[in-house]
Amino acid sequence: MSFIKTDLSQLSFSPFEKIGKEWMLITAGSSGSFNTMTASWGQLGVLWNRNVLTCYIRPNRYTYGFIEDRETFTASFFSEEHRKALAFCGSHSGRDCDKPAEAGLTPAELETGDMTFEEAELVLVCRKLYSYDLREEGFLTDDGLPEQFFGKDPYHRAYIAEIIGAYVKE
What we know:
The chain is an alpha+beta fold. It contains 5 helices and 10 strands, in the order βαββββαβααβββαβ. The chain has helices at residues 15-21, 62-69, 83-91, 99-103, 145-149, and strands spanning 3-6, 24-30, 33-39, 42-47, 50-57, 72-77, 107-109, 115-117, 122-133, 157-169. Strands 1, 2, 3, 4, 5, 6, 9 and 10 form an 8-stranded antiparallel beta sheet that branches.
């Protein structure tokens, strides 16, 4: 394993760049059975006096069941050279293929038992604290967001998770 645990307060990056532009892989499960998906929606911040990450997963995504079944998951961040791998993981289902193998990623198990990939530069281990389902009725504007982002697709479940560990590439 080529990761070392680091203090979250020592990290310096823009969440707008890391999540919105560079993307992340959300991974849940164990070494025997896990799945990963690309995410470009999310937040990092402080809630309930805890450092948290919020991510959003549609219930029809294969990763959804893995997230629901586990207390923890990882959010992994990569360099630009892995952009094609992240694009592949965001456009293919783990139900139909071996996403890591086809994307050229090497699964790695952290000391916590959570899964990530050797190619990641930063991994956040997250423990679920709260979840809620997005609903059309919750939108407070009429600027077309539901139509633009949902259409016939199901609304996402949001997961607010405490960041309980941060690992950087050694």
